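Subject: for your reference before the review

Hello V.,

The reviewers asked for a structural picture of the protein, and I figured it would be easier to keep everything in one thread rather than splitting it across files. Below is the amino acid sequence we used in the manuscript, unchanged from the supplementary table.
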Amino acid sequence: GVEDGNVAGKPRGIFYFSTSFSVLSLLHNLGAVKDYQKLLATNYRDMMGRQWRTSAIAPFSANLVAVFY
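And here is what came back from the structure prediction:
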């Protein structure tokens, strides 16, 4: 294995790519960004300072890196 220095014939890395939608789904499932109430048409002005802003938490070029040993 890698610990022994024997890496011949093995990939140097495995890379996964996804869209920003996948990053948003992951953040939602982890509960990383939560608001105290749901955003509705009737409370839009009250929710101007909301936490869940897709443009801020997962812009178009969002990336997620995970390394497993």
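For the response letter, the relevant points are probably these. The mean pLDDT is 78. Residues 39 and 47 are 7 Å apart (CA to CA).

Happy to draft the paragraph if you're swamped.

O.
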